[in-house]
Amino acid sequence: MKRVLLVGGSGQLGTAIAQRWSDCEIAAPSHAELTLECGERLREALARIRPDVLVNAAAFADVDRCESEQQRAFEVNAIAVGDAARAARDAGAVFVTVSTDYVFDGLAGSPYAETDAPHPISVYGISKLAGEYLVERLHTRAFVVRTCGVYGTATSPSRRHPFIERVLSQPRNGEPARVVADVHASPTYAGDLADALARLVASDAYGLYHAVDTGPVSWYDFAREAVRQAGVDVALKPIPAQEWKAQAIRPRFSALSTAKLSGLGIEMPSWQAGIKAYLSSLR
């Protein structure tokens, strides 16, 4: 039985890991007890728990706030990640950290592979890419896993609800929900990502991977399928990205290829199957 120290256990992915890694002994301190950027506490926890694996499921993921809180973005998403990878190495633990599709600029016309050159266009994307580089330069036993639009059933401490939840909770027969139709991504159910990470950790194929529910989809089509599968009466209105006023620029196409993951025999479900699994978990 592997012993796991999980940082960020209250988020969508952390909650799914705690629920689904049933063959592991998981220690998941609360945010008040342990944050990744508190290096001294992290090293104390590593010494006390002596985990086989340190999983970082935490991040400063508010893309717009990263634009105005740049120092915090780099402290949490980059510096703390590099320090945690070093601490895991010194403790003899495998390190797992989660990155983002926002390391790309969105100019591609097909899903990005791990070999494609990153070019982030937001502070969030830049800070996450910096975190990747700080881990990779150590050449240690680590998995850096990019994903996209993670949603699950956890109640966020910040009360920020996943996109799919916001869509399905729209007032019935009210004003239509305005959803961007010309931005394509790879929205991913947290349970699917947690399962993929478990299989990666069971291997020794360390490195950079993309793990997303497969198939590029626009956010509008994703919302429409979620409404259809849920059988709810929610009106949707497609809008262009330029009408969605946000502080940070988002890539227009940031779907990710999972071919490298498939090469290990780890197949990700489709985005439609991800919605179905999410709705089943609610029931």
Provide an overview of this structure.
The chain is of the alpha/beta class. The protein has helices at residues 12-20, 39-49, 63-68, 70-91, 123-136, 163-168, 190-201, 219-230, 259-262, 271-282, and strands at residues 2-7, 24-27, 53-56, 94-100, 142-147, 150-151, 177-180, 184-185, 188-189, 207-210, 217-218, 236-239. Strand 4, helix 5 and strand 5 form a beta-alpha-beta unit.
Outline of this structure?
The chain is an alpha/beta fold.
List keywords for this structure.
283 residues; alpha/beta; six-stranded parallel beta sheet; 12 strands; 38% helix; globular
Rounded radius of gyration (Å): 18 Å
How would the global form be characterised?
globular
Q: Main sheet: which strands, in order across?
A: 2-1-3-4-5-10
Q: Which spans of ≥5 residues are poorly predicted at pLDDT below 50?
A: none
Write the SSE topology.
Blueprint: E1 2-7, H1 12-20, E2 24-27, H2 39-49, E3 53-56, H3 63-68, H4 70-91, E4 94-100, H5 123-136, E5 142-147, E6 150-151, H6 163-168, E7 177-180, E8 184-185, E9 188-189, H7 190-201, E10 207-210, E11 217-218, H8 219-230, E12 236-239, H9 259-262, H10 271-282
Parallel strand pairs: 1-2, 1-3, 3-4, 4-5, 5-10, 6-9, 7-12
Antiparallel strand pairs: 8-11
Helix pairs in contact: 1-7, 2-4, 4-5, 8-10
